[in-house]
Known about the structure:
There is one protein chain. The protein has helices at residues 10-20, 31-48, 52-61, 75-90, 96-108, 118-128, 146-154. The protein is an all-alpha fold and 169 residues long. The chain starts with 9 loop residues before the first helix and ends in a 15-residue tail after the last helix.
Amino acid sequence: MPVTPLPFEEALLWQYITSKFQGQLTSIHGPAHWKRVRRNGLLLATKTGADPVVVRLFSVFHDSRRTNDGWDHGHGGRGAEFATQLRKEWLANISDDQFELLHYACTWHTDGHHHDDPTIGTCWDADRLDLGRVSIIPSAEFMSTAFAKEMADVGSIQPFLPHNDWEMD
């Protein structure tokens, strides 16, 4: 199956955003977390119908403007605004609809509870499925998509991971 090229330079965008991250690179909300959110989201998207471009962008922007690892009110909105600042230079080739989904998903990822849109729900679930990093077991009660609920009920994403694990080159 041919791979559709992304409408942005993913590896370069990750490098740029990581270079602008205000926290420690080892932060529980830093780049290692973003990569797991990316992996989780792409796996979920195989069954949810989510837009994988938005999922990839959400993973890197959603916590990119955190200022600390504690309660950081408004960090999702700041991540969304960072995406807005980078729109012309880095994200010019994504559609307005994709950008609106990204902006909403980032802004509300800690305040939104569930969402019926498969892309927004997948983004939020991808983040919530990584709560184990802070010793919280993800609960199906807080998931938006059926596939994420199934993973939470099993208690681990590991049985669902394919061999390639969607790592970036």
